[in-house]
Amino acid sequence: MSPEQLAEEIGIPTKQQSKLRKEGRFPIPFKNIGRLVYYSIYDVANFLLNGESTPSTPVPEEAPEPIQIKKKPVKSKAPVQDLSHIFMLRAFAQSLEERATAMLSLAENLKDYANKKEMMESFSTKFPAKGITGDTGKF
């Protein structure tokens, strides 16, 4: 997943992601391929589901600690559980589902086009255009 795609899902702009990565404080593990940056969708999903990161590849010991979100104390007696990561995960899943549906629709359209083109070519070989006779080429 590219930083642009991640920005759509979690709402952190690509420039902010870059800054946090350079500081070693970005909570989602990433991989540099050349000068491009990619995130594993498994790590993104894990972050959205659990609100924390557990990298799919081991992180060097020198890496700084990820960002920890400090929450204000709640005045009520019963503790309130933060479930915002579940909503983010649902939005992520819905986005993936919409993209998959669009890809399936595209695949169906391409298959339909290929079938129609094949039928057209088959028809034109069986029934040549009017006015042209088979081997003689006379009108």
Structural description of this entry:
This protein is mostly helical. It has a domain at 3-63 and 82-103. It contains four helices and two strands. It has helices at 3-10, 14-23, 41-50, 84-126, and strands at residues 31-33, 36-38. It has a two-stranded antiparallel sheet. It is elongated, with a radius of gyration of 27 Å. The termini are far apart.
Keywords:
two-stranded antiparallel sheet; elongated; 139 residues; mainly alpha; 4 helices
Helix count, per DSSP?
4
For the biggest sheet, the summary is: 2 strands, antiparallel
Molecular shape:
elongated
The counted number of beta strands is 2
Question: How helical, in percent, are the residues?
Answer: 40-55%
End-to-end distance, in Å? Answer: 61 Å
Which consecutive residue ranges, at least 5 long each, have pLDDT under 50?
Answer: none
Mean pLDDT: 79
Structural class: mainly alpha
Indicate the proportion of strand residues: under 5%
- Give the strand order, joined by hyphens, for the main sheet: 1-2
SSE string, helices as H and strands as E: HHEEHH
Radius of gyration: 27 Å
Please outline what is shown here.
By secondary structure, this protein is mainly alpha-helical. 51% of the residues lie in helices and 4% in strands. It has a domain at 3-63 and 82-103.
Question: What's the structural blueprint in terms of helices and strands?
Answer:
Blueprint: H1 3-10, H2 14-23, E1 31-33, E2 36-38, H3 41-50, H4 84-126
Antiparallel strand pairs: 1-2
